[in-house]
Design brief:
Layout lengths: L1 H28 L27 H17 L81 H4 L15 E6 L8 H15 L9 E3 L5 E3 L18 E6 L10 H18 L6 E3 L11 H8 L2 H9 L5
Parallel strand pairs: 1-4, 1-5, 2-4
Antiparallel strand pairs: 2-3
Helix pairs in contact: 1-2, 5-7
């Protein structure tokens, strides 16, 4: 019976040893792990009572050590460091070995200096020469020579009525000469009031149709504002035209030198004020089927006399 119990204990011990050896071999095969025994803290090793070794125990123990040695030899190196194999040695008071990790490799962290950011100004064209915009020189806008207006008799002075309605406005770009087609000698104020009444009552216009009127001796009268579109009984659009009419019928009457001077002076001032080129001075017949402003007055336009005279007084304008 005793031998039977001892045999059972031996078999159990062998089984436990094999299981422990297998576990130790697996742990030993892992990188960074080894097997060692816990030793007492004292430098003096206490006597250890050896456990009785049953028949066959030595062979089993040697086999376990051989397996562990092979496992340790086959361990994969980590960073060229192979964990040192450790073999089980019985700890005091314990029949099983203790597993303690050895050669644990911790990653070495090298802290790099944080980059220093130097504040700079916003990018400039000097930094990027290819991005420098090319500027096209812009010629300066010519400034017309300031010319004082000629003496003008106001609407209130010649007794004009208030406009009968609202004007239409425009930007003056041309100067047009007319005549009123009626022989005339004097009393210009009365003549202007008659023209205004006829325009409003017969044509339904809001005011006298012309912007400026010139009498026989060269006096200039104010009509409707130059920024308001004029009116005409002929088939053309007067938008953009400053209308100057000379009182009289110049298919019959001759042009007085004072009238001619008044025309040139007034046209020069209008050209300077609104930037109208002298070449844009014309007669009514240039835009409509009519004899206006009369053959005698139109001759000064067709010959270029008025245009050249205005251009000479405005040498800086085209």
């Amino acid at each position: 019976m005793l031998r039977s119990r001892k045999a059972q204990a031996a078999i159990l011990g062998v089984c436990l040893a094999v299981v422990a050896a297998a576990e130790i071999a697996v742990m030993a095969a892992k990188p960074g792990w080894g097997v060692t025994f816990l030793a007492p803290s004292s430098s003096v090793t206490p006597p250890v009572t050896p456990s009785p070794v049953l028949p066959g125990d030595l062979a089993q123990t040697a086999g376990a050590q051989h397996l562990m040695a092979e496992a340790a030899a086959s361990a994969q190196p980590v960073n060229n460091i192979i964990p040192t194999p450790a073999f089980p040695v019985a700890s005091p008071g314990s029949p099983f070995p203790s597993l303690v990790p050895t050669n644990i490799l911790l990653p070495t962290i090298t802290w790099l200096p944080f980059p220093t950011i130097t504040p700079t100004l916003w990018p400039t064209a000097a930094m990027y020469p290819f991005a420098t915009p090319t500027q096209t020189p812009v010629p300066p806008t010519p400034t017309p020579t300031p010319i004082p207006p000629p003496p003008i008799i106001s609407r209130a002075e010649w007794g004009a009525e208030a406009p009968a309605g609202s004007y239409r406005f425009h930007e003056p770009t041309r100067i047009m000469l007319h005549h009123d087609g009626v022989v005339f000698e004097d009393n210009a104020a009365e003549r202007l009031r008659a023209i205004q009444r006829y325009a409003v009552r017969s044509h339904g216009w809001v005011d006298i149709p012309y912007h400026y009127l010139i009498d026989r001796v060269g006096n200039i009268y104010e009509g409707r504002p130059p920024l308001a579109v004029g009116d005409t009984a002929t088939a053309y659009d007067p938008t953009g035209h400053v209308l100057i009419t000379v009182l009289g019928d110049y298919n019959v009457q001759e042009v007085d030198a004072r009238q001619l001077e008044a025309i040139i002076t007034l046209a020069t001032w209008l050209s300077a004020s609104y930037g109208i080129p002298p070449q844009n001075i014309a007669g009514h017949r240039d835009y409509a089927v009519t004899s206006c402003p009369g053959a005698h007055l139109y001759a000064y336009l067709s010959s270029g006399y008025i245009i050249e005279a205005v251009a000479q007084r405005l040498p800086e304008m085209p």
